[in-house]
Fold these 2 entries.
Entry 1:
Amino acid sequence: MRPTRDFSRRAGLRRSVRLLSAFRFEQSDPARFYGALAADTVDMVAELWTGLNATTSAGRTALDVGGGPGYFASAFTAAGMHYIGVEPDPGEIHAMHAGPTNGGGSFVRASGTALPFADDSVDICLSSNVAEHVRDPWLLGNEMLRVTRPGGLAVLSYTVWLGPFGGHEMGLTHYLGGARAADRYARKHGHRPKNDYGSSLFAVSAADGLRWAASTGALVAAFPRYHPRWAWWLTSVPGLREFAVSNLVLVLQP
């Protein structure tokens, strides 16, 4: 597909191994993990933009819903984009400012399901690994499309519940059921998981995302985020995709 042509050339096995290896360092070495993820995300967004518009993404305004630490701000700014991070948690906003922002980007405290931006106001709207933490992820998706100008780019990427990383820090115990896995984690560690099922973590399927995206009329591509190009066919197989896709990327153009 034309929108993913440039990105698919880079989506090889070496990239997949590099990114999946970085996940081991999320807690012990956040700079290594978030730095690698941010760099790859910027490359993906830039290449998707070029695939859709045949122009460079430099100079475009990128709105990042749930931006997390400042690594994303730094990477997008270094790529020449005007970065705006949106985050509802003041603690995360503090982490953004404490992170390696290099003076780049701006940050807004707001909910992704009620973005304080005008219709058609940004060129690019991104949400990376946020939808599974929102009670109504498709309200978030609709807001992303609302603020993205016609001909722009919206990229919604999220962790599929039945994939191996669906339970987040609860590991594979989420296959026992979300509530049971969260209770088991609390008994073992003496506190509730950060990603607590039913409050800050929800079961979002690949089928749900594909159904929503198709209903908008704006879907131009869908693929597994961390898989090599030759495994992207998994997205088209009902049932199997819930376990094998792991993280689904929905590419939309209003």
Note: The chain has two domains: 2-162+203-252, 172-201.
Entry 2:
Amino acid sequence: MTGTVLGAPDIGRALTRIAHEILERNEGHESLVLLGIPTRGVPLAHRLAERIGDVELGFDAAARTGALDITMYRDDLHRQPTRPIGETTLPPEGIDDRTVVLVDDVFHTGRTIRAALDAVKDLGRPRAVQLAVLVDRGHRELPIRADFVGKNLPTSKSERVHVHLSEIDETDEVLISGSSRTGAGETA
């Protein structure tokens, strides 16, 4: 079965809610840095930063957002060793003593986030690391949990979740495909 789970307005509302939750949990924006995990986590991080900047006028969205390539930290390189290495870009002030919010599109097994935590450790010493995801589809293999979730989407292992963002795919939507409507997989 294939179907749209979130449309553009739903994604926009979810990101606005997550931005407010981030500000509330951290009592403002003073120490926040957002790092998107490629591919679709990067535009999501920029969108979240823009929403935070709309609420907190002193927040410089461009200067507080970056990208975190986790390719060399993955635990499946032996299975797919020809992955292209992406670029890690940090905000000018770095991540030391900052609250780093990792941003990704689909949260599944937790292995991507484990790799991201290893990458962050090599880049500096943040005060705290938090996780914001657009979709949490379940099936955790590691004891990692998202702090901020746009949509919890219970899935079967045979289903897939496809996140499309206008910056990359020319449309904003979250689709589910697979055997039945009781679950989802991912292409993030």
Note: The beta strands are 2-6, 32-36, 65-67, 99-107, 128-136, 148-152, 160-164, 173-177.
